[in-house]
Amino acid sequence: MPYGSQGRLHRLTGPCSAWIADHAGWGYSNAGLIVGGSSSLLVDTLFDLRLTGAMLAAMAPAVRDGPLRTVVNTHANGDHYFGNQLVPDAEIIASGSAAAHMVQDDVESLRADLRAPGPHGDHLRHVFGGFDFDGITVTPPTRTFDGELTLDLGGVEVRCLTAGPAHTEGDVIVHVPAARTVYVGDLLFSGGTPVAWAGPLSGWIAACDRILALGADTVVPGHGPVTGPHALRETRAYLTLVEEAATAGFHAGRSQQETVAALRLGRFGAWSEPGRLVQNVAAVYRHLDPTLPHLPHAELMMRMGDYEAAFRPETHVPEGVPHRCAG
């Protein structure tokens, strides 16, 4: 992806806008802006300082009369919080579980992996070559919550709801009831395959149900274009398919690789990054047997890449597996 790739600010309903990345691949994430009568709220920052700075510059005219005083990080993947330091005067809010995973080691380990020799380093440089992680100082939340937190932006009500563990340990939903709009972070990859870094998938299915129960018409995903509740229903259907198939495979004594190979994605195979199935099956197996270790990153990368190469060899160019700081 060209280093110059950024995004655009899209006006939605009422006080809501969405920053949508020009590309929906690994690390290229979305964000949100809610402008109130007295202040504004930013949903997530981006993966590096250049991208976050460009986004904030584009938002500046919109927040002239309602300064940006609050940031809500939807979860602890770096592509949703590495830019926090560029809003130093804002209160930064996240779930308690997410805050516990926002550490400087995320940046340092990513830098080290990008310098690694061999196929693993080559892969990461291919995927993340468009980002600049120099100068990033992890800026953690100044306020945490669990359950529900209601904010008033000068007459605009914003509800923050915890919904994890699902994609990660501490996912958060940001709901603007009057605008019938919800920002869901990586609980939705619009047009892309979900990936459960934490799981269980049953928790993610429950999160989809909770979002759908809000009755929002507009759904802003963590990656991909703005959409509606139908996309959440499709994500729920995918997760249900994988959970049921992986559970059956586990109880039948099949290996994770055997279960992945046997699982037929049907219409979900048209989504980008189908190789995330490898991680999703692993999440189900670990939920059923917590003693199972996480796959080493290099092995996970290899399995995802192998799956994608075999899945659509004529049309799919595998981008492989990201560092767990992204996606």
TrEMBL record:
Q: Which InterPro entries match?
A: Metallo-B-lactamas, NDM-1-like, RibonucZ/Hydroxyglut_hydro
Record bears the keyword Magnesium: no
Q: Which SMART domains did the record assign?
A: Lactamase_B
Highest rank taxon of the organism: Bacteria
Print the keywords alphabetically: Isomerase, Plasmid
Residues forming the Metallo-beta-lactamase domain are: 28-223
Family matches, as SUPFAM superfamilies: Metallo-hydrolase/oxidoreductase
The molecular function terms of the Gene Ontology recorded here are: isomerase activity
The protein here is known as Bifunctional 2-hydroxyhepta-2,4-diene-1,7-dioate isomerase / cyclase/dehydrase
Species name for this entry?
Answer: Streptomyces clavuligerus
